[in-house]
Specification:
Blueprint lengths: L7 H7 L7 H12 L6 H12 L17 H5 L16 E3 L4 E8 L4 E5 L2 E4 H4 L4 H4 L6 E6 L7 E3 L4 E9 L8 H4 L5 H4 L2 E8 L2 E8 L6 E4 L3 E4 L7 E4 L6 E2 L4 E6 L3 E6 L15 E2 L4 E4 L1
Antiparallel strand pairs: 1-17, 2-5, 2-16, 3-4, 5-15, 6-14, 7-8, 7-12, 7-13, 8-9, 9-15, 10-11, 10-14
Length: about 290
């Protein structure tokens, strides 16, 4: 069976999500994941076993030493645990993740899954001018599962030009919802970060999901949750944060999805990449 096509089990799991209070559940998870208590230790040990976390990579390998579950989830890795691809002309993966989809953006449309597409304009909050440089460019969607390292890093050197908060639902972004919920990534709450690079504009979109308690950036701190949930846009051009290839740019406090948009002049994704493939932060994705 084509694993990009939804089956009846996918629909059965996805349909109840329409009825759930996404933000209410996520705010509860926000509070619980930050509760500083020793009572979190059994849950942390279960989580490590259940998802196969490699704690030997972490700066602090003992789960009981983390003050909260969120501290464990956003753990720092030891220096050298994620070496950057040595070729100086490669754009690297911003996160440990699995490739959900990748390819060309055709007439402003991105593929979500077989039978589902959505527009770059919708993804970037409805602003056609922001989306225009990517109209015939390239995209890759990277899904971060619970076992993954959840800090997000720069694929290439860039200066932040604008960032846009787009309110929305918080559907799960697991594979079964990607295949069943139309326009999923343009419906969920998200933060779009527009960078200027030496090859032109680059967009990194951090997509929220149910149980994703917050999204943070290194320049603004915690961006979500927000109250009220209204669209926000920040112009950073007067004093732009400048980040180097491989430098941390943000993190998910409980995981989700990163969508990377590149302009047409970049040569495209490496031929070996395919949907379903696991990648690690620092691994080559494309050539400059």
């Amino acid at each position: 069976m084509n694993d990009q096509v939804a089956n009846w089990q996918d629909w059965l799991k996805a349909l109840p999500l329409y009825l759930l209070p996404h933000h209410g559940i996520s705010r509860l998870v926000y509070r619980l994941s930050r509760w500083e208590t020793r009572h979190k230790d059994p849950v942390a040990r279960w989580f490590i076993r259940r998802y196969g976390l490699d704690m030997s990579e972490a700066v602090e390998s003992d789960p009981s030493r983390y003050a909260s579950f969120n501290d464990l989830f956003t753990r720092a890795l030891k220096p050298g645990a994620r070496p950057l691809d040595p070729a100086p002309d490669t754009l690297i993966s911003p996160a440990d993740s699995r490739v959900s989809q990748l390819g060309r953006i055709r007439d402003g449309q991105l593929i979500q899954a077989k039978g589902h597409a959505y527009s770059a304009t919708a993804l970037l909050g409805g602003d056609a001018d922001l989306a225009a440089p990517f109209a015939d460019g390239h995209f890759i969607t990277l899904y971060l599962s619970p076992r993954d390292y959840h800090r997000i890093h720069m694929p290439w050197n860039g200066s932040l030009r604008e960032s846009v908060y787009v309110p929305g639902r918080l559907f799960s972004v697991a594979p079964f919802t990607v295949k069943t919920v139309p326009g999923l990534f343009a419906r969920n709450e998200r933060l779009a970060c527009l960078f200027e690079t030496d090859f032109g504009p680059m967009a990194m979109v951090l997509v929220g999901a149910i149980n994703v308690a917050s999204i943070e950036t290194v320049w603004a701190g915690e961006v979500t949750p927000r109250s009220p949930r209204t669209p926000c846009r920040w112009d950073h051009r007067d004093n732009p944060p400048t980040l180097a290839r491989g430098e941390e740019m943000g993190r998910f406090n409980l995981g989700s999805t990163v969508i990377l948009l590149l302009p047409e002049q970049v040569s495209g994704w490496l031929p070996a990449l395919a949907p379903g493939q696991a990648v690690r932060m620092g691994q080559a994705l494309a050539r400059r």
